[in-house]
């Protein structure tokens, strides 16, 4: 195959846009909706470890659709920028606008300078003290940034979901109402619920969703994932009275026991004072740190 | 600095490299000037020019661990601060207390807090307690040069171990030396100039499986004993309403005990000591200078 000697800038950009759009439209949708106490992220995402929604900083959250490896590296870059800025200035000096600008510049540069554009669409959300001060920035693959009111929808069926949300969204909804409106909008277009007319499920379940909030009432770090029974209760799947408890923001480790041969005073909480004598002889043949 | 260019032309390449989840390691490549260990070491001893924090104690109790610190910072023979805070939450399940050069120590605590939060955000997991203790050791190690010129920083680290095996106490304490050596302590620990006296006090008052209230008392009492004999440790100050800072870490997370709680404990200790002293005098104990 021969490469053409000349392609007009217009043609190149159009091709790249089309390529990026195609990549993004294959993915499932994400909705970011404001509610009375902050911002709600709802993603159709059957994986519980490959997140589409994440925490950037105290009051700032991140949601993305498209190619995982690409938006994950952008998410990490955002966390780094926020942490470096917060560390060298002050925590208050990290704003959603700064993060959104950095994303816009980066995506714009990649779109114009590299052969392959990033197939991602991002939303940077910042929760303020009052509902009027909440910010939602939507960033597209070419680096354009839009400040959206009320809600942002990204991904394959974004327009259909937006249409659905526009009909049902009310400013100042409670968490449960906002979640149900959002999930219904996502369910309306999801391939999972395509068989609803023939007796299939009509709505996405907790296992198919990734849900998180930026809750302005929380001190310092506003970001919180809603998982497990708390999510099922909010969705009305399975009413359990005690399930509105905060789910931990992070998963705990599996219980661990000290490895044999670890240096004394580090591994064995029951016997920390062995100071490299008693504990070591027993494990010398393991080739430990002795 | 890279921050400026970040807003003008997007993220510098280092930000987009997917390597590591350590904030300190990232700063070392992206902005090494921000790291405390990367500065030229003073060529002369400067210990007396910088405020130094003094005594920190930590004790385990049945439900977790407590850490407390007095409120004094000294600069040579001067008291440079009466209300400095030397115990900080490191994350939601661990606390860090610092003794040594206050400026560097507080900067290190700040960096350490970001380090733990950064890891949590990037990995989506909290670091294990041993991992946290090791990260802190690495930071202390980087400060050895400054430590040799009188700017040593010696922290005390304690936390609630979410991974604790069944039957092992969940509250754990780690102490450090200036070279970054990291030692797990059994039951209680103290660092700083008054640590000798605080440890002696804890040796008598602390025992395995104390309740939270009883353990709080041992902490405040050990700081009182340290202040009694060490000029660089401040005692409870009812005139200015300044009392030691005490944090409690249990399964629920971190709580800073209120000044009112600590004041009640400290006042009880002072009253008890005064009573004991008065009884001794009544029994006929003479003091030097008393008229025969």
Automatic annotation (TrEMBL), chain A:
Spell out the NCBIfam families in the cross-references.
20S_bact_alpha
- At the top level, the lineage of the source is Bacteria
- Note the CDD domains from the entry: proteasome_protease_HslV
Subcellular localization is given as: Cytoplasm
Gene Ontology annotations for the cellular component aspect, listed alphabetically: cytoplasm; proteasome core complex, alpha-subunit complex
**Subunit and partners:** The 20S proteasome core is composed of 14 alpha and 14 beta subunits that assemble into four stacked heptameric rings, resulting in a barrel-shaped structure. The two inner rings, each composed of seven catalytic beta subunits, are sandwiched by two outer rings, each composed of seven alpha subunits. The catalytic chamber with the active sites is on the inside of the barrel. Has a gated structure, the ends of the cylinder being occluded by the N-termini of the alpha-subunits. Is capped by the proteasome-associated ATPase, ARC.
> HAMAP family from the xrefs?
Proteasome_A_B (MF_00289_B)
- Could you identify this protein by its name? Proteasome subunit alpha
Activity regulation annotation text: The formation of the proteasomal ATPase ARC-20S proteasome complex, likely via the docking of the C-termini of ARC into the intersubunit pockets in the alpha-rings, may trigger opening of the gate for substrate entry. Interconversion between the open-gate and close-gate conformations leads to a dynamic regulation of the 20S proteasome proteolysis activity.
Q: Which InterPro entries does the record match to this protein?
A: Ntn_hydrolases_N, Proteasome_alpha-type, Proteasome_asu_bac, Proteasome_sua/b
Q: Which family does it belong to?
A: Belongs to the peptidase T1A family.
One Pfam family hit: Proteasome
- Stretch list, region Disordered: 234-290
TrEMBL record, chain B:
Query: Propeptide ranges, please?
Result: 1-53
Q: Does the keyword Protease apply?
A: yes
Q: Which SUPFAM superfamilies match?
A: N-terminal nucleophile aminohydrolases (Ntn hydrolases)
Per the UniProt record, which residue ranges are transmembrane? none
Entry-linked Gene3D superfamilies: Glutamine Phosphoribosylpyrophosphate, subunit 1, domain 1
Catalytic positions? 54 (nucleophile)
Its UniProt pathway annotation is:
Protein degradation; proteasomal Pup-dependent pathway
The record's GO CC annotations read: cytoplasm; proteasome core complex, beta-subunit complex
Q: What does this protein do?
A: Component of the proteasome core, a large protease complex with broad specificity involved in protein degradation.
Subunit info here reads: The 20S proteasome core is composed of 14 alpha and 14 beta subunits that assemble into four stacked heptameric rings, resulting in a barrel-shaped structure. The two inner rings, each composed of seven catalytic beta subunits, are sandwiched by two outer rings, each composed of seven alpha subunits. The catalytic chamber with the active sites is on the inside of the barrel. Has a gated structure, the ends of the cylinder being occluded by the N-termini of the alpha-subunits. Is capped by the proteasome-associated ATPase, ARC.
This chain belongs to the protein called Proteasome subunit beta
According to its UniProt entry, this protein's organism is Blastococcus aggregatus
* Gene of this entry: prcB
């Amino acid at each position: 195959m021969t490469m053409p000697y000349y392609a007009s800038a217009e043609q190149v950009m159009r091709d790249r846009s089309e390529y990026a759009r195609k990549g993004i439209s294959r993915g499932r949708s994400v909705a970011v909706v404001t509610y009375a106490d902050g911002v709600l992220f709802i993603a159709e995402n059957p994986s519980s470890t490959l997140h589409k929604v994440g925490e950037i900083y105290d009051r700032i959250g991140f949601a993305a659709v498209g190619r995982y490896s690409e938006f994950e590296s952008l998410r990490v870059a955002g966390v780094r920028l926020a942490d470096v800025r917060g560390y060298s200035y002050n925590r208050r000096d990290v704003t959603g606008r700064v993060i959104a600008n950095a994303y816009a510049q980066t995506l714009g540069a990649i779109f114009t300078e590299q052969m392959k554009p990033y197939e991602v669409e991002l939303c940077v959300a910042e929760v303020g003290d009052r509902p009027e001060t909440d910010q939602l920035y939507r960033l597209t693959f070419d680096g354009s940034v839009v400040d959206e009111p009320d809600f942002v929808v990204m991904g394959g069926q974004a327009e259909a979901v937006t249409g659905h949300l526009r009909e049902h969204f009310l400013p100042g909804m409670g968490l449960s109402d906002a979640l149900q409106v959002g999930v219904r909008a996502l369910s309306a277009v999801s391939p999972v619920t395509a068989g609803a007319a023939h007796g299939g499920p009509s709505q996405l379940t907790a296992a198919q969703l990734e849900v998180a909030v930026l809750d302005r009432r929380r001190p310092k770090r506003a970001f919180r994932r809603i998982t497990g029974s708390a999510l099922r209760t909010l969705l009305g799947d399975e009413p359990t009275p005690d399930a509105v408890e905060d789910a931990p923001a992070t998963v705990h480790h599996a219980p661990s026991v000290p490895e044999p041969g670890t240096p004394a005073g580090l591994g064995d909480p029951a016997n920390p004072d062995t100071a490299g004598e008693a504990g070591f002889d027993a494990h010398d043949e393991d080739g430990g740190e002795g | 600095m890279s921050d400026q260019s970040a807003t003008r032309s997007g993220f510098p390449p280092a930000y987009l490299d997917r390597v590591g989840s350590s904030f300190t390691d990232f700063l070392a490549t992206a902005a090494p000037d921000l790291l405390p260990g990367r500065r030229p070491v003073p060529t002369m001893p400067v210990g007396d020019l910088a405020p130094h924090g003094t005594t920190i104690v930590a004790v385990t109790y049945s439900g977790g661990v407590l850490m407390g610190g007095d409120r004094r910072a000294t600069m040579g023979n001067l008291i440079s601060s009466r209300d400095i805070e030397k115990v900080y939450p490191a994350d939601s399940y661990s606390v860090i207390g610092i003794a040594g050069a206050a400026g560097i120590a507080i900067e290190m605590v700040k960096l350490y807090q970001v380090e733990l939060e950064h890891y949590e955000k990037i990995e989506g997991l909290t670091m294990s307690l041993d991992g946290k203790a090791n990260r802190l050791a690495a930071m202390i190690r980087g400060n050895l040069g400054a430590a040799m010129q009188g700017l040593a920083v010696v922290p005390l680290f304690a936390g609630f171990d979410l991974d604790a095996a069944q039957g092992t106490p969940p509250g754990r304490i780690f102490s450090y030396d200036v070279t970054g050596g990291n030692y797990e302590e059994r039951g209680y620990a103290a660092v700083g100039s008054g640590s000798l006296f605080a440890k002696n006090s804890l040796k008598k008052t602390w025992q395995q499986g104390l309740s939270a209230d009883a353990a709080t008392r041992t902490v405040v009492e050990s700081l009182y004993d340290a202040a009694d004999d060490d000029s660089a440790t401040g005692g409870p100050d009812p005139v200015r309403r300044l009392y030691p800072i005490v944090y409690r870490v249990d399964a629920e997370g971190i709580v800073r005990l209120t000044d009112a709680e600590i004041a009640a404990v400290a006042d009880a200790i002072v009253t008890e000591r005064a009573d004991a002293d008065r009884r001794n005098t009544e029994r006929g104990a003479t003091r030097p200078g008393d008229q025969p």
